[in-house]
Amino acid sequence: RGPAGRAMAAAAAFERRVVRRAAEHHYLRVRLELSDGGARPNAPQFKQLVVTALRELHGEVGAALPVDVLTYEEKTLSAILRVISSGLVKLWSALTLLGFYQNRRCAFRVLQTSPFLLALSGNSRELVL
């Protein structure tokens, strides 16, 4: 074989392997909507509200799910939450079904979710051109 033949054989011997590993964490951008203009939760109260939602739907095991509040804006009641990927469905369902905060109607809205924190840094739907 000449040089071209050896290059073809080497190229044919090359095998590409892609290993896809599930992400360790998922990130959620959420917003709390309150029915009236009463007191807004501060960061510790917001975290407690998330834990309460998990406890109400999934019991003490659900409340033990490790959830981190990475950012929280009290003005907009928006937060970015981090949860282990295996707990994503539990957290999302608990937030969706929570209906009260301090005897006032409330609702969590999950605005975005991603296994990559960087993906939540911007929202193309809110982009102003």
TrEMBL record:
Belongs to the eukaryotic/archaeal RNase P protein component 2 family. PANTHER family: RIBONUCLEASE P PROTEIN SUBUNIT P14. It comes from Hippolais icterina (icterine warbler). This is RPP14 protein. It comes from the Eukaryota. InterPro entries: Pop5/Rpp14/Rnp2-like, Rnp2-like_sf. One of its GO terms (cellular component) is nucleolus. GO terms for biological process: tRNA 5'-leader removal. The lineage of its organism: Eukaryota, Metazoa, Chordata, Craniata, Vertebrata. The keyword tRNA processing applies. Keywords: tRNA processing. The keyword S-adenosyl-L-methionine does not apply. Pfam families: RNase_P_Rpp14. GO terms for molecular function: ribonuclease P RNA binding.
